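JOB MANIFEST
job_type = single_chain_structure
chain_count = 1
residues = 162
[input]
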Amino acid sequence: MYPTLNHALLDARPGDRIHLQWNGEVPLDSHQLSGEKLSDLTLRAAPGFHPVLSLSSDEQGTVSALFEIYNGKLQLEGLEVRLKARGGDDWCAVVSFFGEGECFLKNCVVTLERSNQKTSLAILPKRRMKRTTPAPPKPPQITLENCLVRGYGNLMVVRCGS
């Protein structure tokens, strides 16, 4: 049992399923899913619990996404996500794809709260990771199954550039 989800994510290994036993808001720092450690992760609500993931109000850091996916795979199941941009951010997303990666949401509710900044479920930022292998890159994938996305924002944002 971990005192916070941030602590559990620090110890996560590929293929782990983290069952959230919290009710109400669960503030998160942004987390990178890359490399061997966080290449495949599932977060789900434990039976009888209703966690609501949100971006922590900590103003440190330059990325305004709950999860940055480089080459990993993330599954969110039975969760609610409430997203509101922090004060200095010009955008905010649940998932930011910096490389190849996959995100699967099942039985989730995502609320994009109105603010002066832009909010979205997923974003492909201008700067993305360069491939080190000659194989053609796979496009990032996001899949929603039995989900509700509501509020004021975008489902997907693609920023052009290198």
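[summary]
Residues 5-10 form the longest helix (6 residues).
The first strand starts at residue 16 and ends at 20.
exit_status = 0
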